[in-house]
Amino acid sequence: xxxxxxxxxxxxxxxxxxxxxxxxxxxxxxxxxxxxxxxxxxxxxxxxxxxxxxxxxxxxxxxxxxxxxxxxxxxxxxxxxxxxxxxxxxxxxxxxxxxxxxxxxxxxxxxxxxxxxxxxxxxxxxxxxxxxxxxxxxxxxxxxxxxxxxxxxxxxxxxxxxxxxxxxxxxxxxxxxxxxxxxxxxxxxxxxxxxxxxxxxxxxxxxxxxxxxxxxxxxxxxxxxxxxxxxxxxxxxxxxxxxxxxxxxxxxxxxxxxxxxxxxxxxxxxxxxxxxxxxxxxxxxxxxxxxxxxxxxxxxxxxxxxxxxxxxxxxxxxxxxxxxxxxxxxxxxxxxxxxxxxxxxxxxxxxxxxxxxxxxxxxxxxxx
Amino acid sequence: xxxxxxxxxxxxxxxxxxxxxxxxxxxxxxxxxxxxxxxxxxxxxxxxxxxxxxxxxxxxxxxxxxxxxxxxxxxxxxxxxxxxxxxxxxxxxxxxxxxxxxxxxxxxxxxxxxxxxxxxxxxxxxxxxxxxxxxxxxxxxxxxxxxxxxxxxxxxxxxxxxxxxxxxxxxxxxxxxxxxxxxxxxxxxxxxxxxxxxxxxxxxxxxxxxxxxxxxxxxxxxxxxxxxxxxxxxxxxxxxxxxxxxxxxxxxxxxxxxxxxxxxxxxxxxxxxxxxxxxxxxxxxxxxxxxxxxxxxxxxxxxxxxxxxxxxxxxxxxxxxxxxxxxxxxxxxxxxxxxxxxxxxxxxxxxxxxxxxxxxxxxxxxxxxxxxxxxxxxxxxxxxxxxxxxxxxxxxxxxxxxxxxxxxxxxxxxxxxxxxxxxxxxxxxxxxxxxxxxxxxxxxxxxxxxxxxxxxxxxxxxxxxxxxxxx
Lengths: 368, 471
Known about the structure:
Chain A is an alpha/beta fold and 368 residues long. Chain A has helices at 11-28, 30-38, 96-112, 148-159, 176-186, 206-219, 245-255, 358-367; strands spanning 3-4, 7-8, 55-56, 74-77, 90-93, 133-136, 166-167, 169-170, 173-174, 200-205, 230-234, 263-267, 276-279, 292-297, 310-317, 326-336, 339-345.
């Protein structure tokens, strides 16, 4: 993507910005400077953004990767589910405004205006006027929990949604009754194009939509949501065991009067302030704003692999100004042009022969 | 990683060996080789599995009558030694199989097979039997008990022994089959999925050497998560069962065995190396050889290293050169994407953990060919990652006990460098159920008569008959 809303986002521009940010982070983020120095890399030695050392996500579990301290900084916590580590990582965001700007711009572009026009990409439906009603199936942000997803959705509800937008979940779970009531209220009499009411954007994890589907099937309920309505799921493509995104939405969308063009998959990470989005079921190609670039690298050498090859995803997010820009993940994926297709989390290394991790040995001792 | 090696073998000399050897099986001859998702061996029906078991049993019983113990030793030794001879067609194929199947370099494959062959010589096997039985003739006939005229004993294995292999160290299934054959038993074996080839190659060599013994050994494989008819039938027919592997493999077999069938388990264990306080001058190259032997896949391979009286960081630096040299000699390790990600994760955790106070040191090659994760504080945490050492500093000898006690029963071997406190460490090892304490540098090559997992290797396969003759 070389332009964004008329702005130039050429390779040169990205490289220039990336080098400036690398120099800034090298100077002010001490753990990162140490990490780079051990590898013999400094801003003077790097002329290609691809050579800026990315920090593995594991590092966020052990140190605070920050460039500055500010009174209004945000602290987000990772889920702590990575195999081999029970620690939760922390991503400190000294300047929430940058997060907001990145989040809102990409959400508007890729979710609300996917084809440069109305809320819905489907040409046969009437463009819906005004802002959509955003309903989140994720609990509101709780600083003690530090979920970046909650914070993001809260912000979108405030900044993008029309009045009445809200979360209908709490730490105890989703308020199913409220969701059912809402669907009753917004789903008017159906015609071919769907009711002409306010479009609804339902935001949640793939798991939450799966749980909703179970309830709809059990009570045999269905609606026709207003034209332009969307579902946006997050997390489902990361390979949660037993969760088949196609199976969930292949059954859920028809119960809401929607088709796969009304489904958006969001890819975000606590360690990144920018997100990618893709449309449809399956594993859609995920595109993002031009300040987020992703390499697919060889897991052993970390050298970039060519388009179409599978590898490990390594993101360079210029919005991560306050922490570290390059983040090396454990997610597998394929690069397709400027987009990526996520293939899931790299599973834990299998036991080698008769050797187990100490933790497993201890568990075996306890149970054996 | 598996590839079709048939093109690399000289068909004039010898065609590729199938991944199975099934005396009494009358099914297809052409193995479905080369496609990763296809099974490597035919799926036996109940009738076929029964026919194989009957053939193997009959051959084993006949061999008891027709072959002396010495003859059996000679035949099994000659057959096994062929695998370690790169000039022998079967030895050449064994190397190719390890290269293509496990991703090892030619040198690593060759050294691994040579290492295993140390216990396959006639002398080594005879000495193993002598060390456990005293007199090998117990395996052939009744032998009078010394000083007790008229009292005789004879040791016999059951007609059939079932073996479920893990396949982590390529020669181990061959050694296990040899021991069962020395016990005069027939063997029904399932190869490990990592390395299913060595045992069929041995079976083929054995059949060449002696057709009767070749018929007393059946080998096949099936996906680890399956319980095919062959497992059910073979479990029912066998007098004893040996399983190498973790809880899942044990559970799968236990459910199939008749209640009175004895099961011998070789479960997950780790190797630990301890550098005592006077080991400052110890040669770190010896540890490097222990680590890289069998690509650190063995249960004796050191993975956890403790240095007494030091913060371990200096030892890490001394190891750096040696590991780099040894890894360079043996070539890069085979590594899955999952393993590469796990190694990087472990490196990152160690590096960032110590960033504040300099208490850690991560050393390793950029191609992940080896890794040292050194922490100055005491610890025992480790993961089974390719060529990765978890090194911790320990203040004094007295700290070793509390540190290692949680791993009691799970340490296979302790390698020792230095002398200060070595006897105390040996006592500690005994109390922790460690089956071997040895110098660093010889951890990967235990003597043949080593009592693996604290027990004899041959005796558990045998049942004794006492004969008190009235004449």
